[in-house]
Amino acid sequence: MPTVSINRKDFEELVGQPVPDDQLAAWLPLVKGELKEQDSKTGNLRIELQDSNRPDLWSCEGIARQIRIKLAGAPSPYPFFKSMKRPTHRLLVSAGLEHVRPYVAACTAVGYAVTDEGLTQLIQVQEKLSDVFGRKRHTVSIGLYRLPQIVFPVHYGLVKPDEVRFTPLGFDEALSLREILALHPKGVEYGSILAGHELVPLLRDEAGHVLSLPPIINSREVGEVRVGDRELFVEVTGTDLRMVVLTLNILAVNLADRGAAIKPVEVSYPSPTPLGKAVQTPLDFGKPQSILIETIETALGQPLGAKQMQAVLRAYGYEAKAAHNKVSIKLPPYRHDLMHAVDVAEDVAISLGYDRFTPEMPTQFTVGSLSRLEEISDRIRDLMVGFGFQEIISNILASRLELVERMRLGGSEWDRLVEVQNVMSKSYACLRQWITPSLLRVEAASSRSFYPHRLFEVGEVAVPDPTDEMGSRTLTVLGALIAHAGANFSEVHSCLDLLLFYLNQPYTLEVMSHPSFLEGRAGRIVSEGRTLGLIGELHPETLEHWQVSMPAVAFELEIDALLREG
Amino acid sequence: MADTPSLTSSLHPLEIKVLTALHQHRLSSLSSSSQALQEEQIAQSASLEPSQLSMAVEWLLTKSLIRVESEKVTPVVSLTKVGERYFEKYSPLERILSVTRDAKQTSRRLTIQDIQASEGLEPTEMSGAIGCLKKEGAIRIVQGGYVEATGSPSPTAESLRALLRDLRGSSRELDSFPEALRRVIEQYAVRRGNAQEPFRIDARIERRYLLTPQGEEAVQALAQQGPADEVSQLTPELLKDGTWRTKRFRKYTISLRPPRLAAGKRHPYREFLDQVKRKLVSMGFQEMRGPLIETEFWNMDALYMPQFHPARAIHDVYFVKEPTHARSIDEPFLTRVAATHRNGGRTGSTGWGYHYDQTRARRLVLRSQGTAVSARRLAAGPQVPGKYFSIARCFRYDQVDATHATDFFQIEGIVLGPDITFRTLLGLLDLFAREMAQAKESRFLPAYFPFTEPSVELHVRHPRLGWIELGGAGLFRPEVTSPLGVDVPVIAWGLGLDRMAMVALDIHDIRDLFSTDLEMIRTTRSHF
Hints:
Chain A is α+β, with helices and mostly antiparallel strands. Chain A has 16 helices and 28 strands. In chain A, strands 4, 5, 6, 7, 10, 11, 12, 13, 14 and 15 form a ten-stranded mixed sheet that branches.
């Protein structure tokens, strides 16, 4: 979800009329935009755009365009997409690039003198498109140049990294391509995209001047656009042909909206691409399609009719023609986000305005219920509260230190955890495999709260299980802990005994050696050969590890096991 | 003034003992000047523990039955921890004197830095001690910065030794020391800004207490009642033999604060979630559950999030270390979802148009969104029409701070049926606005989720918070429902209630929802 900065005055010029605050708020839903910040002094606005499939909206021009279309009730014409003349400017692609960075698209923009704000927007849209849409320049990257310095045709080819030198943006002297990749900040940031290739891509003009090393950096001589420049050359390279062309289309309509005349460039490939061997860009590669009006009406739950459907779609930028029960539609050339008729349905709803739909309650009857596990968990929680226990809720993520080491479980049969691979903080590196450490964490932080402490938590734990398809099981477990000067086994045993009495669950305790508990004062809770949980007096060393200076006793009961048939 | 009879009948036995002691002392003393008693004397004659005594005295003062006749403040000297250390290991003064004397005998030369290093002294200790010894002529500094013992004694060092010995293990009144030693004590006593000194001077306050006229009256009243048949606690024995009839029951001062109760209680945040759960069940929703550890398939692929989606990167989701992959994904779902991502499959969609990686689908992650539970439910054959919800623990790869938690609850669900449309979606959200936030006004805004189209954000005017975003929802894309075998429209909804919970519990840090501070958990009240 990119956030863009725009200037209100620039925005109003592009919309073609003043935009007071309440009008802005009314229009932002058209672009799924949310106003994040505004500075009334400078007129700067920061707008978050939610739709990650609508890169055409990630600029001042794009937001203004959607509003202009709404005001006009019809799509904006961009005649350069329909230019029949063969372009005068050509870009030649050499063989071999298909394994590195196969595709390129380009155009020229003449007659618009770049303004301060225009340049700011140009840089911003370039960043958003190559970063977010272009996945950090992997699939798409963009270059802008001063047209008068370029001798056509431009060549897109491969070179050895030591063979060519040029002065990159931000530097004063010429470096070899290898040096740029190693030393230039952009080389360091994006160099990995070209890693493993012996030859790297390069854009040069007919006279041999370097334009850029895509997707890393432009040449300083040709590739530094300044305020006042009136003639630009724009190119996009990348690994996905449609994304590359779409990106160029967006840049072209943005520049056209500011008054530039766009001239297409013909890109010639050594072998055919899905769009042909010679591709004239910008290119409208969208195809018209026919949709049943009823499909959209059914999804929205509202009859609209052919005439309104056509008007509503055109007011959102579509080419649309409705006849009888069908509407023939085509997206504008700067959009390529139509995967299914439901996408059209949403655009219809947005174009009309969500407030134009009357909410309707779902009427079909359903029966509400809790899962068996939740029902029995709730009963257990009720009983525990009645026994005088305070309920706790803990993070499920914990550290190995808490779950294993402090519990004296290192190397024992209980030393098995589901661990996170990409650890952000050691405190949240594992999923808990039992509840007692969570309760001890509370106990350790709460010595100033008056005693006795009786704590419980009913919560989820994750237990590694090699026999499971997923390698682990999620269990719901009750953990209970008592801490006070006289806390002992028999006290906690009484709680367990009464709890299982009310749950109608017969049980026996089997003596068990467990490192967290005192030897001879720990047991397994067993019923008909199944283990339901454990109980014991916490080992003084366990308490010491937690810096707990009160005797503590605990039990755990696996609630899933209570549900399982014996 | 409280009336005496009711006052005397509510007197605690401890209070009566103190009053009696003071009264008897007054009767036995001749001159009026010595009618008052010190606390120690009262304790002795009433045979009370110091803690009992101070309680009773406090109560009696509040009731104006006794008063403070005089107060004497006596300065008392004792050793601090530093003092005890000085006694064991000698003071800096003594140690400097001793090493310089040793050095003189062995003709070694020592600088201040040498001494400081060899004795492990702090610079501040060092400079004070050197200054004092020089002033007293016990050492001198010669050319080259060397410290030399002169052979003369240091009176301060000797006084210190005597005092450390005297005060070890006991305290003494300051005035019991001669003038010269008092000056040394005052010089080396802890004070604000310097805690590293051997002596501490505390003020011992001795108060003498006297009965007030009301106190006298109370004693008289007590004498008339005769204390013998007053009891404080009704016992089974008194009930059994009926002797309670001959007893008077001491009246309590019921305005005193009671002792705290260690009660059993639900967790305040859980109470909030329980209420949400009850509401959802009452609206006809069935609960659904799912595992904490999920495959990327159910967590994301089944929800039509392409494998290259930015929210699937290493910086957003926790990956499981071992095992890294599930053994398999249930068919026919894997094949159908793969086809849908590739080219739309049979869903009528174009698909994402990329090579779908079936190994990646089996990658294990910590569930990052509750919608994974909904996806599993759709695949497991839900009831139609049906309404489902889950309160699912989810995990995000986020730096933990006041507004970001690493694991948290998501409240999510689905509604499915042949009559579901965009308008019924809005109707459901309206219901949530009323039931969950008691909001009378709500607003729908276009939103974006990878798995729904159309998508809506629900904003409501909360009675206390003003306009807030309450949740997001949409109709599941056919690319989600059709591969999972569902052929009716499905609403997917999620509610963001943590902000409401935090307001209801009056907490300001999201981490406090899972607080480890028992005192906080015990004292948090909810307002919902």
